[in-house]
């Protein structure tokens, strides 16, 4: 399994993810809005699914992809941890500076 951050590092995957944030879509719908083939979209969706950023459900002959809220929450938690550590380090650095 790859990380969500790694998966979103690719511009096409990020574009697909952003489209799915707006509304669930099929491979055909996504490919119609992007300059890539349906096969390429399917491969990108597989990476996003492996990273737990999207889920899919059957809808007749098609599969509908949507953002996985749990995967999105995990990315948000990563980002929150990053900023908490960064801001704590900044606060410590500022507090250690000699006062004039």
Describe the protein's architecture and organization:
The chain is α+β, with helices and mostly antiparallel strands. It has one domain (4-96): Winged helix-like DNA-binding domain superfamily/Winged helix DNA-binding domain (Arc Repressor Mutant, subunit A). It contains five helices and three strands; from the N terminus they run ααβααββα. The protein has a three-stranded antiparallel beta sheet with strand order 1-3-2. A hairpin with a 2-residue loop joins strand 2 (54-59) and strand 3 (62-67). It is elongated and about 70 Å long. The model has no long low-confidence stretch (mean pLDDT 92).
- CATH homologous group name: Winged helix-like DNA-binding domain superfamily/Winged helix DNA-binding domain
CATH topology: the name is Arc Repressor Mutant, subunit A
CATH class: Mainly Alpha
Task: Output the helix-strand order.
Answer: HHEHHEEH
Summed up, the domain count is 1
Structural class: alpha+beta
Mean pLDDT: 92
Model regions low in confidence, pLDDT < 50 over at least 5 residues = none
Over the alpha carbons, how many angstroms does the gyration radius reach?
Answer: 19 Å
């Amino acid at each position: 399994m790859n990380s969500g951050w790694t998966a979103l590092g690719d511009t096409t995957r990020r574009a697909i993810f952003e489209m799915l944030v707006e509304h669930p879509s099929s491979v055909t719908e996504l490919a119609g809005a992007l300059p890539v083939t349906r096969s390429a979209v399917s491969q990108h969706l597989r990476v996003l699914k492996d990273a737990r950023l999207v889920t899919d459900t059957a809808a007749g002959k098609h599969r509908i992809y949507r953002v996985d809220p749990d995967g999105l929450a995990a990315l948000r938690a990563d980002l929150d941890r990053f900023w908490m550590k960064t801001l704590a380090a900044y606060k410590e650095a500022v507090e250690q500076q000699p006062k004039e």
